Amino acid sequence: xxxxxxxxxxxxxxxxxxxxxxxxxxxxxxxxxxxxxxxxxxxxxxxxxxxxxxxxxxxxxxxxxxxxxxxxxxxxxxxxxxxxxxxxxxxxxxxxxxxxxxxxxxxxxxxxxxxxxxxxxxxxxxxxxxx
Length: 131
Prior knowledge:
About 5% of the residues lie in helices and about 50% in strands. The chain is mostly beta strands and about 130 residues long. It has one domain (about 20-130): Jelly Rolls.
């Protein structure tokens, strides 16, 4: 059992990579992850899990595809939360910011399926331990 709290400001300052989440805590079968955001992510879907986002700083946009193939964009600012329901195709993007996510341990950042090439700036990972 860890007895030292994790300071999110310090944890975010310990790395610069965008869309490369760090695991700051685990509870039950979930990871609590933080990430810097900037630029485009990739259209992807998590078939079996919802995805929770909390914007810690800046702005974070989530484009969501509807059943007809159109898309709407949810714009999030510091302090905003949003849950992408399982099975929903979505594409994050950001002019710059940082987020906190709750996801089942082992969830891949690019989902169970994704569309197109994964951008160089997106780390397709299940998260990295915070240093």
